């Protein structure tokens, strides 16, 4: 039996936040190919009712499955909290990897009190409440909803705008917090900036943990890709968006991502959305 599977892995998010997960996956899984979907026509998800998020996520998955992918990474804490259990029931054979705010990492590394920055939807759903309960004896978790922040990041808000927004929520002098957990993949895109705003705090994300989990699942199921030919293989096969693909050329995060990762971006708008 062939123990390799060269089909791509799908990574999706409401917008550009999942690019932070894709960047990590490109680095940690050098033999794998990917397709990426940003549902920019419907972003942000984090301020929508759960039923709407679930319907959008179901469309995202159907679209990605039409590309014959071998695994799906829900590179969005909001979509994971709203839908991942249901998705796994619907697609029992498909490896589906979700994201959750990395409060466990904060508990191990820092303890004390952490602020979990995330969308209002993520923080209101059961998955987060369960996580807080599980870690009750290890870390004090303060939920910090950030409405509008992912949208600012998708649309290239300036560092000053981002700093003003965050300083309204958390005072950089407030060292009763040991760490800030970036519980939305969009925020990971600006993690260096966040660290510069909060030099005395540990800034924590769950991206690496999620990609390592993906790697373990690929190995367990024996569906890793074969070693890539050194040239001529485009590791990001498609970058799709539900908005006008021309928007991607104007987004600094996308063009910067393409340049940094030396990928050619094949953007298109899916027909069936
Ligand atoms: N990137 C998404 C997350 O991790 C959500 C952004 C949004 O659509 O509100 O939660």
Record keyword descriptors for this entry.
273 residues; alpha/beta; Rossmann fold; 2 domains; six-stranded parallel β-sheet; four-stranded parallel β-sheet; 13 helices; 10 strands; 43% helix; binds D-glutamic acid
Characterise the protein shown here.
The protein is of the alpha/beta class and 273 residues long. It folds into 2 domains: 9-99 and 209-266, Rossmann fold (3-Layer(aba) Sandwich); 103-206, Rossmann fold, CATH 3.40.50. Helices cover 43% and strands 16% of the residues. The protein has 13 helices and 10 strands. The strands form 2 sheets. Strands 4-3-1-2-9-10 form a 6-stranded parallel β-sheet, sandwiched between helices. The chain has a 4-stranded parallel β-sheet with strand order 6-5-7-8, sandwiched between helices. Helix 1 packs across helix 11 and helix 2 crosses helix 3 (77-90). The protein is globular. The site of D-glutamic acid (DGL) has 17 residues, from helix 3 and helix 9. D-glutamic acid (DGL) is lined by residues 13-15, 17, 43-46, 76-78, 119, 122, 150, 184-186.
Present the secondary structure layout.
Layout: E1 9-13, H1 19-28, E2 34-38, H2 50-65, E3 71-74, H3 77-90, E4 96-97, H4 103-109, E5 113-118, H5 120-124, H6 126-134, E6 140-145, H7 149-154, H8 159-169, E7 179-182, H9 185-189, H10 191-197, E8 202-205, H11 207-220, E9 236-241, H12 246-250, H13 252-260, E10 267-268
Parallel strand pairs: 1-2, 1-3, 2-9, 3-4, 5-6, 5-7, 7-8, 9-10
The chain binds D-glutamic acid.
The site of D-glutamic acid has 17 residues, from helix 3 and helix 9.
């Amino acid at each position: 039996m062939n123990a390799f599977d060269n089909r791509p892995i799908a990574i999706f998010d409401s917008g550009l936040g999942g690019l932070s997960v894709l960047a990590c996956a490109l680095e940690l899984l050098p033999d794998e190919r990917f397709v990426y979907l940003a549902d920019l026509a419907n972003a942000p998800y984090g301020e929508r009712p759960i039923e709407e998020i679930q319907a959008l996520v179901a469309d995202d998955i159907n679209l990605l499955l039409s590309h014959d992918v071998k695994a799906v990474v829900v590179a969005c804490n909001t979509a994971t909290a709203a839908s991942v259990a249901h998705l796994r029931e619907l697609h029992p054979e498909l490896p589906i990897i979700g994201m959750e705010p990395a409060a466990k990492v904060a508990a191990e590394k820092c303890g004390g009190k952490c602020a979990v920055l995330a969308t209002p939807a993520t923080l209101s759903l059961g998955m987060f409440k369960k996580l807080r309960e599980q870690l009750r004896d290890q870390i004090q978790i303060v939920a910090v909803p950030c409405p509008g922040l992912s949208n600012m990041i998708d649309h290239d808000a300036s560092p000053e705008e981002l700093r003003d927004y965050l300083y309204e929520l958390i005072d950089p002098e407030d060292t009763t917090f040991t760490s800030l957990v970036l519980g939305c993949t969009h925020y990971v895109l600006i993690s260096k900036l966040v660290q510069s705003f909060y030099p005395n705090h540990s800034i924590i994300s769950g991206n690496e943990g999620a990609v390592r989990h993906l790697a373990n699942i690929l190995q367990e199921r024996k569906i890793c890709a074969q070693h890539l030919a050194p040239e001529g293989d485009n590791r990001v096969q498609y970058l799709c968006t539900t908005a006008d693909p021309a928007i991607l050329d104007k987004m600094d995060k996308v063009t910067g991502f393409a340049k940094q990762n030396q990928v050619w971006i094949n953007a298109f708008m899916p027909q069936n959305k």
